[in-house]
Amino acid sequence: MLKRSGRQESFSDKIYRFRGTLLVVSVPLLLITFVLYMMPSSSSNESVGDYALVNRKMSPEKKSGSSYAVIFDAGSSGSRVHVFHFDQNLDLVHIGKDLELFVQIKPGLSAYAQNPQEAAESLVSLLDKAESVVPRELRSKTPVRVGATAGLRALEGDASDRILQAVRDLLKERSTLKSDSDAVSVLDGTQEGAFQWVTINYLLGNLGKDYSKTVGVVDLGGGSVQMAYAISETDAMVAPTVPPGDDPYVKEMFLRGRKYYLYVHSYLHYGLLAARAEILKASDDAENPCILAGFDGSYKYGGKEFKTSSSPSGSSLNECKSLALKALKVNESTCTHMKCTFGGIWNGGGGDGQKNLFVASFFFDRAAEAGFADQNSPVAIVRPADFEDAAKKACQTKLEDAKSSYPHTEDGNLPYICMDLVYQYTLLVNGFGIYPWQEITLVKKVKYDDALVEAAWPLGSAIEAVSSP
User: Fold this and answer.
1) Which of 60, 137, 229, 321 is the most buried (most CB within 10 A)?
2) Which residues bind ATP (predicted)?
3) Is position 25 annotated in a ligand binding site?
4) Which pTM does this prediction carry?
5) Which residues are catalytic?
6) Is position 216 annotated in a ligand binding site?
7) Has 226 been labeled as part of a binding site?
8) How is the chain split into domains, by residue range?
9) What is the percent of the chain with per-residue pLDDT over 90, rounded to a whole number?
10) pLDDT for the residue 2
């Protein structure tokens, strides 16, 4: 019988014999080492907590792509300034505690039709406040825009041009913000409506989704009312042609990787304040059944003055509604298209993009003053019929009792509370063809992350401004 060799086992033999155990131990160690290598070093300015936040949604202070935009909304009822702060992904970030700076003053630029210099100077306090929140090193790169809306569009002669030039001179002399040659202009109705649609759908997180997932918008300003909603490509292809010089019915927009066909139309002279003038004209300067009993005075709009007095029997819902229909020309214009709103205007064909309507500006204000919307809530679900119900009460009110009945309504608006509510109902139901019992969303602000943002067209304009080269 042979004896085993006395040769001692080598190191390589031991490795070979324990190769399974070594493999089990080494793989986890390698993985742990790789993870530690990929994480930020302890010498980085960012903590591990910062790292997780930055990779989820980068903090604006740590990003080089931060930008601001300053947008003036020069409306017929007042001037407002919005300042927005974006990160490089075009997500809104905070300015102090809010997601925007918003300041407003009254009256609007159109109130200074005879004094352009005074009109421009009315914006100084807003401009100073806006510049104060933009970092000094970013001001020369921060676009500023002044968008005048229907109030200036309604002025006669060259009054609008002279006011706009005075505002351009003001920006050139007083501001260090980036002001392009077209920064101060009168927005055409389609721009205003399109920007409003972009704003609300951006805040709701709808941009980039199919058009059927977006919401339609009706925005009732002082001088004009806009309707905008996304339609199918099929409907866009059959949109009626418009006379030379008029805005097309369909605007193509490419937003967040998706092409939208946006039906948008602006009705000049049919904003709430302008509509008062149209309804007063419809009564031929006679006593008006839309005016609360006890009022005798005048109404000024667009540089004109209209005799305004109540009828001896006071205001009347049905008689006021007849005047509103006459002002809207609902039954007077011939519709040459398959479907029309009022004044012979194509309605866009309807469809999924219109099934959820967000209704903004003066609709919300009057609903809150009339008591069927909470003025402290950013949104309210109502029906057009609610405006008619509120109008019934308003039209039975005398001017002497109006302040106690409508404590949140400004004194200058009290004589017109019946007229305003009747007009809003008539516009929605008879003008736009909305079913009286359809639920609509009155919107003043939209929740975005942990803040509320004003649901107005300037945000849409700001998005375009910071996206431009």
Assistant:
1) 229
2) 222-226
3) no
4) 0.76
5) 192
6) no
7) yes
8) 64-187+454-467, 196-438
9) 66
10) 40
